[in-house]
Fold:
Amino acid sequence: MKIVNGFDLMKFAQSHGLLLPAFNTTNMEMTYAIVKGLNQANLPGYVQISSNNLRLSNPAAIAYLTADAMRNSDVPVALHLDHGKSYEDVKACVDAGFTSIMIDASSLPFEENIKEVRRATEYCHFYGIPVEAELGALRGKEEDIVNEADCKTDPGMVADFVERTGCDLLAVSVGNVHGLDIQPKVDLPLLEEISKVSPVPLVMHGGSGIPFETVQQARKYNLIKINYGSDLRRAFVSTFGRTYEKNHNHASVIELSIEAVDNVAAKVAELVKVINA
Ligand code: G3H
Ligand code: ZN
Structure:
C-alpha cells in the first residue's frame, strides 16, 4: 500500500467504528516499527512526527521511510505532522508527501491561533489534506519540551474556532497531559460537552498513561484519534538500556536496533488493539 490520505483514513475509521492511534516516530527504526505493529494488529493508524523531532531528520526523510515501510503494509496508514510549529514546517511536510497535518498555535492568543490555523488550512486543503488544530493547552513534556500551562478547552469557543479556521480535527485539553511525569485526569463530562458543540471529530493528545477504560469512555464523544509518544519511546530506549546495564561491552547496534523495532512494534500492536477492543 501507499501512504493514505488523512481524509480517507478518517472515513475508513468512521465507517468501521475505529479509534485511530497516532504514533510518534523519531527515526527509521520507530517508523518501521509503527507500520509493523499496525500490520501485526491488522488495524489502521498514523505515523506522526512533531516539528521538534524533525530536528534530527527532515520531512522528506520521514516520508521516504514511511513509504518504504508501507510497501509491505496491508493496513491503511497516514503520515501526520504532529504539533506543527510553523507555516514553513506545514508546507515542507505537505510538499514532502505528508497526508495529514497539525498546526499547533495553541500557545498563541485565540485570534492569533485562528489566523495561523486558517493560513495552514488554506494551504493544506488546496492539496486535499486534513488539518488538526488545538484549542486549550496541555501540560507536560513532549520529548524535551516542557509546558506548564494547563488551560482546558472552553466549549464556548469551539464552534467559532472550528468555523473560522476551517480545521478538520480538534485537539482538546480536558485533563490529558503530555509525557509520563504527570498523572492525566481526563474530564469526561467536559469532553462530552465539547463533542456536542464541535462540528469536527476530536483528538486526544497524551495517550500514554491514560487508563484504557477512560479511552473506551472517551470514544463515545466523537474521538477519532489518540496520540501515543512516550509509551513507544520507552519501549525503544529501554531495549538499549536493559542490554547496556547487563553488558557494557555489547556494541551490536544492528542487533539492538532490530530488537528495538520488535519491542516498539509489540507496543504499537498492543495499544491499537486495546483501544479498539
Ligand atoms: O503529540 C504527541 C502525543 O500527544 C504524545 O503524548 O507522550 O503522553 O503519549 P504522550
Ligand atoms: Zn501532543
